[in-house]
Amino acid sequence: MPLESAAGMIPSGLGDDPISAIIGLPGLVVFLVVLALWLVELVLRLLFAPVAMVLRLVGAVSYRLDLIRNGRHVETYEVTGLPALWRERKRLAAGGAYQG
């Protein structure tokens, strides 16, 4: 029942008077612009994700590892190739890179 009562409180439309339209239209325009930009970014990410994956697998682009200990950034490592990434992650997880 609480969901139904909350849904009844949501205004429908921009109202009947011109003041609510003046107040609501700029917000609606900003929302639509941000939504369009977000959709463009999503499509670009979906298109280029396979390309980035292949480039990382063949070693053309390096992986970036950030070492964080106790909530603080300690160091950044860049490794090329998937086997090197696995070795570096295993070494860092064992604590081999942190002194003190």
Defining traits:
15% strand, membrane, two-stranded antiparallel ribbon, 61% helix, alpha+beta, transmembrane, 3 helices, 100 residues, transmembrane helix
| Largest sheet features | 2 strands, antiparallel
Shape: elongated
What class do helices, strands and sheet pairing give?
alpha+beta
Mean pLDDT rating: 82
SSE run: HHEEH
Strand content: 15-25%
Q: What is the strand tally? A: 2
Tell me the strand order in the biggest sheet.
Answer: 1-2
| Poorly predicted ranges | none
Radius of gyration: 25 Å
Helical proportion, percent range: 55-70%
Oligomer: single chain
Q: What's the N-to-C terminus distance?
A: 56 Å
Count helical runs: 3
Q: Could you characterize what this model shows?
A:
The chain crosses the membrane at residues 21-40. Keywords: Membrane, Transmembrane, Transmembrane helix. This protein has a two-stranded antiparallel sheet with strand order 1-2. It has three helices and two strands. The protein has 100 residues and is an alpha+beta fold. The protein has helices spanning 2-9, 18-58, 82-93; strands at residues 63-69, 72-79. The radius of gyration is 25 Å and the shape is elongated. 61% of the residues lie in helices and 15% in strands.
